[in-house]
Design a protein that fits this description.
Layout (H helix, E strand, L loop, with lengths): L4 H5 L7 E3 L3 H10 L3 E3 L5 E3 L12 E4 L15 E3 L1 H15 L5 E8 L7 E7 L2 H10 L1 E2 L11 E6 L6 H7 L6 E5 L4 E5 L5 H14 L6 E10 L6 E5 L6 H5 L4 E5 L2 E5 L2 E4 L3 E5 L9 H6 L5 E3 L2 E2 L5 E2 L10 E5 L11 E2 L2 E8 L9 E4 L1 H10 L1 E4 L11 E4 L12 H15 L2 E6 L2 E2 L7 E2 L2 H12 L8 E3 L6 E3 L12 H4 L3 H19 L6 H5 L5
Parallel strand pairs: 1-6, 3-18, 4-5, 4-10, 7-9, 9-11, 13-23, 23-27
Antiparallel strand pairs: 2-3, 6-7, 6-8, 10-11, 12-13, 12-14, 12-15, 15-16, 16-22, 17-21, 18-21, 19-20, 24-27, 25-26, 28-29, 30-31
Helix pairs in contact: 2-4, 9-10
Length: 527
């Protein structure tokens, strides 16, 4: 079982491995090899093949005595045996160890140097190395002394045959295996680069708590004129983390993954990975302007003049762009900030039941965090073609190896210590569920965020939702008052009551999975 960096990488000796190539070289290699095309805005546009989203059903964690008791074993954290892991590793080594040149990226995860880890990505495709260079913090040059804490072997173009699949204990051509003890990730059968990104986040979600750091699936920004006005935005893909944290009046700390230490918040990554379906310069100018040479577009349709058609979802609704955080105007560098004044939970409620904005009590903060209600949006995962109501613990269940209550208690401790206010924003549907109602306009959601961060809502009177117990402000500047009461937006109030009751029952069925304090459980909806 190779566990050291030298042991993991020694099989590459004698191979042509392009290590930490400059961005321009990686782009040239990718274009020359037919991996992608340059778009008119300078970004490299690639297509990921049959998988244009994550494949959580194909992800497995090596089960060993050393980590077994830490893990919330489930459909999310599926076990594989050490023997199965070793067999897949042998298949990957044989594949990467012969044939074409390889590409290696060396860099770091963690803007706070006290908690960062060293990461190497080894891949057959130049664009995967380019992707890694945008998402992590690059090491400088090709340094033979670089000893990664974590190594990712990306064999995305390799598909397992039936005999290989049986040997490693999977049913199809795809396998993503991760080992917390070997500190190794094996990616087979999917070229979707999000698997690279999320495997390291998964690792940090296990490792950071051992250093007293709370790992979070959230974006973060800070007021340009008030360094103590820090905000976190929790939510699954497509709920608005990237969009809402990209604010011209605030400096971006990061768009997706952070740690909260005794000194404040730091970005786990060095870049951003944004959905760009229906992206517009008017609606999201900061993201629009960040897409340039050195960025990677995934599965975006190019027009004949090579202009990206962001409205075209014919390949997938989960079109993506990745770019270094320094491409965002005014991003905070290094990506380290103080303790959050506000925490905002984002949910894309496909049932159209939840209020657009709610102020949470400390008990409700734990309750809604551990339940993590949202909707899986189209394309984010393989097979998801329309919004599907979903409970994802901690607003990031697929990336959390430990039990959800473990993370919820870390959140509770920090908001109590720092007096942080917690809010729930519904960025989903109003006036009815998916197919009947419509999504909340982005302008209104932005207005709610500004009202929170400006302190306007700190003392505004609130109405209590009769079923969910959520406290909804009676007025928000820039938002029509009638939108604040979700029931009043439905043409049939009785249908709303029925839908709200059904969702409340789903919450109660889900919270039964967790061992919660009595006060936390009592803060949930009334059935």
């Amino acid at each position: 079982m190779p566990t050291t960096a030298d042991e993991r990488l020694i099989f590459l000796e004698g191979r042509t491995v392009h290590t930490n190539l400059p961005v321009a070289d990686l782009v040239e290699h990718a274009v020359r090899r037919g991996e992608g095309h340059l778009a008119a805005n300078g970004a490299l546009n690639v297509h990921t093949g049959s998988r244009s989203g994550r494949s959580p059903g194909d992800k497995y964690l090596e089960d060993t005595p050393g980590i077994h008791g830490n893990i919330d074993w489930s459909k999310v954290n599926q076990p594989c045996t050490p023997e199965q892991f070793s067999k897949l590793e042998s298949i990957v080594r044989e594949y990467l160890g012969s044939g074409e040149d390889l590409y290696r990226f060396d860099g770091f995860a963690g803007a706070d140097e006290r908690y960062r880890c060293q990461v190497s990505v080894v891949a057959k495709e130049a664009w995967h190395a380019l992707f890694a260079s945008t998402l992590f913090i690059p090491a400088q040059g090709a340094d033979s002394s670089f000893a990664p804490d974590w190594t990712i072997f990306d064999a995305g173009a390799l598909e397992l045959n039936p005999e290989q699949a049986a040997a490693v204990g999977v049913s199809g051509k795809i396998a993503i295996f991760q080992s917390l003890e070997r500190k190794m990730v094996l990616i087979v059968g999917t070229r979707y680069a999000g698997e690279i990104k999320k495997s390291i986040f998964y690792a940090m979600n296990h490792d950071l708590p051992e250093s007293g750091v709370f790992p979070m699936h959230c974006s973060c920004n800070v007021d340009r004129d008030d360094a103590e006005n820090v905000a976190l935005f929790f939510g699954l893909s497509g709920t608005g983390k990237t969009t809402l944290s990209a604010d011209p009046d605030r400096a971006l700390v990061g768009d997706d993954e952070h740690g909260w230490s005794a000194d404040g918040v730091f970005n786990v990554e060095g870049g951003c990975y944004a959905k760009c379906i229906r992206l517009s310069e008017e609606g999201e100018p900061e993201i629009w302007n960040a897409i340039r040479f050195g960025s990677v577009l995934e599965n975006v349709v190019l027009q004949p003049n090579r202009q990206p058609d962001y409205d075209d979802g014919s390949v997938t609704e989960n079109t993506r762009v990745t770019y270094p955080i320094r491409f965002m105007d005014g991003a905070l560098q290094p990506s380290v900030a103080g303790h959050p004044r506000h925490v905002i939970f984002l949910t894309a409620d496909a049932t159209g039941v939840l209020p657009p904005i709610s102020r949470l009590t400390p008990e409700q903060a734990q309750y809604y965090f551990v339940n993590g209600y949202t909707s899986k949006l189209a394309g984010t995962e393989a097979g998801v073609t329309e919004p599907v109501p979903n409970f994802s613990p901690c607003f990031g269940g697929p990336f959390m190896p430990r039990p959800p209550v473990f993370y919820a208690r870390m959140l509770a401790d920090r908001i109590a210590e720092h007096g942080t206010k917690v809010w729930l924003l519904n960025t989903g549907w109003s006036g009815g569920g998916y197919g009947v109602g419509s999504r909340f306009p982005l302008a209104h959601t932005r207005a709610m965020v500004h009202a929170i961060l400006d302190g306007f809502l700190d003392n505004v009177p609130c109405e209590t939702h009769p079923i969910f117990g959520l406290l909804t402000p009676e007025a928000v500047p820039g938002v029509p008052t009638e939108l604040l009461d979700p029931r009043s937006t439905w043409s049939d109030p009785v249908a709303y009551d029925q839908a709200a009751s059904v969702l409340a029952q789903k919450f109660r069925a889900n919270d039964a999975k967790f061992t919660l304090d009595d006060a936390v459980r009592a803060s949930g909806p009334t059935v």
